[in-house]
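To: structure subgroup
Subject: Chain for Friday's discussion

All,

I'm putting the inputs and outputs inline so they're searchable in the archive.
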Amino acid sequence: MSFSVMLAQLADGMVRTVGIFFLTLLFSLPLGFLVCFGRMAKKGAVGNLVGILFRAYISVMRGTPLMLQLMVVYFGPYFLFGMSIGNKWRFPAIIIGFSLNYAAYFAEIYRSGIESMPIGQYEAAKLLGYSRTQTFFKIILPQVIKRILPAVTNEVITLVKDTSLAYALAYAEMFTIAKQIVASKSDFTPFIIAAVFYYIFNLIVAVAMEFIEKKLNYYH
């Protein structure tokens, strides 16, 4: 196999890796807010029950391996409902598994940012006539985003590397393709190329997040 053919195959795998990355962020970032609000629910018996359920969800997602979660999502419909699974279900299962896992981590990051806000800001907004919804979206949320961005950046960078776990469901993303080439050609080069691809992708993500962070530091 020529170097150009090897590079083309790995580049195709990288496109699939990028697809997992962006779709996971697309679903997990907003889902994290839903989990966060559920986790923080406290008012009344229903609120306490919701809070317990979401805390249990976060505990399970963070306490079990992502690879295991991917397998549960993929094989679960067959063992639980007798549904047929195959290639068409493989990619959706990967996105669902990744999104559910990362939503739990993002939820805790969101919660830490929201709970770090001084209570005085809520009281001041109430005196100015803001509703709770207006207070959150116009005053609290912009500050929370600034505070949690470094932690979110760490999770996003981790996601780039975690995409390689898609191999557990025999999905041919870049790392899987690199392993297949190494196994068939006894050549370590694909791993080196894959490492370069991952590093460049991570570097782009880190630079983009740093740019956003600087844009949000408008008081500095």
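Points worth raising on Friday:
The CA atoms of residues 146 and 216 lie 6 Å apart.
The radius of gyration is 21 Å.

D.
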